[in-house]
Amino acid sequence: MAPVIVSLVAVLTLSACGQPDFTYVRDRDGTTYFKVPASFTRLNASPIELFLTGDRPGSQAALTRAQRVWSTAFDRSAQPDVSHLLGSPDPFVYATVHKLTEEQRDAISLNRLRDFILPVTDQTRELYEQQSALTGQRPLFTGFERISDEVLTLDGGAKGVRVRFNYQIGGKVQTFDHTAMVDEGGSTVSVLLMGCQATCYARRAAEFDTIAGSFKLLRLPG
Known about the structure:
Layout: H1 3-16, E1 22-26, E2 32-37, E3 41-43, H2 46-53, H3 60-68, E4 69-75, E5 92-99, H4 102-107, H5 110-114, H6 122-135, E6 142-153, E7 159-169, E8 172-182, E9 188-197, H7 198-203, H8 205-214, E10 216-217
Antiparallel strand pairs: 1-2, 2-10, 3-4, 4-5, 5-9, 6-7, 7-8, 8-9
């Protein structure tokens, strides 16, 4: 058994002996790992997937997507709800792992990683605003502010970014902390999106750093 797997098993075993400080998470294929404080409540992320894609529940598109996309969510709120991803005074964590199609592999780039969930780059935000204007609907996300943008140094040819930014949503400023990584083969993208209202994020920045720092790609045996 590989050393990293042995270490992870040991951590999980030790945590089970007493009250754990963290919940340790891996995707269904074991390629991505992170931890969140045990005070967070785990949620079914399916409604988030449907919101982000616009797929209808039970549709063939939703079923096909579920075969290549894994996701989970955690909420620190006393009344946890998946809607808190887009606005909450308490921290929210959403993680997803995508097996890319051949077309997506050809298009992947650092900017695509930045825009994997929400519009972040200038070009994608402009396109989002144009689409909103065409539909006659007021954009949900307004008042974009970039806080930081870091290109990650990863092993074995993998690449990634961590971007922090603000959006105004429903009259409140929400801070998002987005980490996205593509594996060395360019076949899988792993994303961690965290956030809460700006005052909450400033107060709990160290907690978000701990979660983001634990977000890793794992090399499986074989």
